[in-house]
């Protein structure tokens, strides 16, 4: 199906070449497109109008080219958008969660792009809008609300926004009785903050000029930000830092981590001016998370060889490592994902045999019971509660065919109360779809899980097209949850599949370790094995598979396009991390030092350099045939900078030997997450789906039931 004839004949933008050499460990590379990296990138993140005119002209030419190639899908994109929009309840509202005299929630108004945040009296009553995202976003090309935290006296709201897409958030304080923001305004923050005990001020994280969370400050209401007190400073640029608070309002948590090591510092609300207390000094490879538990802290850790994690306790009076005691032992193959502490219970979310489950433990008796479901593949989310002294927690459940359901669960009586089922206004009959869990044999004998959904009328004779999604990095697991958008593909005869490749934690922590650093190629080979298994089982054919992934999943797309281009009929790479080696060699970029544990440090290690060079997509483009490729990016993206896909696209066009097009769509008003509004985001999804339908020859196929 990958035939250049399905696209109009248009000349692709020509990218100027200005070769730049760099040499590391005696190895010299030449980068002919390095000029696309703006020298003033920090300034561009804050003010996109400062972008070099030559670079802007090139990016605008790329957008004109992709619009021309996709012009014949405009009506299809509109149809897809309307279908996906029709599955969203436009005036949807969350079930508010109780906290003191109020219950807090969020909602959308019909036609609204941004959420509104509200509260009602605890036991019901008139709704009060405390923040209207549509009002705040008015006149802005991009707008995203960050963290919200209401004060314990319920008089003020700390909230943040980003209006560039660069993830530099501005903090505001809203006076809830009047609905007006106070004069307190702090820029360049991480997007949230935590109130102190008497609500006279708040703790927050400030980002430095390289977009790193290097300092935590305390701001006293009514004072100038320049007077804010420095609480903690992290000198190592290789670590992320965040500040959070306990639900009992007695502790401030300062968490510091990279992808394999963590460290906590504690600040007692009773002594907010004291020096933060170190819990356990960072030790390479040792991770731990701290959770409140009244007179103890619960500690989720991989210490002492607990690869899939265990839970320990420590007295709040002296929580240092020497005082940790085991509570829930390590069990190989049972990955404990998170823990929450309450007055009478402790709750943990874990995964075993590839499926999630919630386990509730009575703190007095030690008795445990499990909340689980029977479907072949499903997703659970643990929302917990605002309050500490409660027996009721909240969780969500969905599967690829079952819309999301929200439950309140009484941990004492073990009764679950269905609060809400996701509405699909245009209609959804789960019996029209089939969901399956398959296992694909990998190159080394491992079995790679696949979750998939397709319409019951789809023939399984190899003729169906397939959208195959993958990620496979940072231990992130892609859940088999309900996705209303993919139904537009399933209704047009697609098999929609998730490849649970190594690099995630789908089969335990070892699954993650087997897909990072020196073992990174397992991620790519797993994905290719999944594609071949789907073909062998007659779900699809290679020229009908469109591979899709974003960010580190976009790196996966670049790698599989280099390694097995014949296995795919098309590739969609969203905000793709494709220039891995160059980025890991640039320690001025926001995420580079914290990412070294994930990928390796090619500056310090020749071995790491060679490993990354062996798979980095940009460095491995070759003179051979590639399928049609769509790259999507955002100009102000601080995570995967726009120039990575821009350079990759240019090199692909320079070297590849076929006539299949390479499209580059860049949002000039957004960053890593794409468009910020819920409907404008659907327009972007409609575009990528139209590309998938176009390259598989299904652009003219009407959805089932039409």
Named at the architecture level, the CATH assignment of the domain at 4-85 and 427-695 is 3-Layer(aba) Sandwich
CATH-defined fold name of the domain at 4-85 and 427-695? Rossmann fold
Q: Structural class, judged by helices and strands?
A: alpha+beta
Helicity range = 10-25%
Poorly predicted runs are none
Mean pLDDT: 95
CATH homology-level superfamily of the domain at 4-85 and 427-695: Alpha/Beta hydrolase fold, catalytic domain
Q: How far apart are the first and last residues' alpha carbons, in Å?
A: 24 Å
Radius of gyration: 25 Å
**Number of beta-strand segments:** 37
**Order of strands across the main sheet:** 30-31-33-32-34-35-36-37
**What is the number of helical segments per DSSP (H or I, 4+ residues)?**
13
CATH class of the domain at 4-85 and 427-695: Alpha Beta
The major sheet is characterized as:
8 strands, mixed
Strand content: 25-35%
**How would the global form be characterised?**
globular
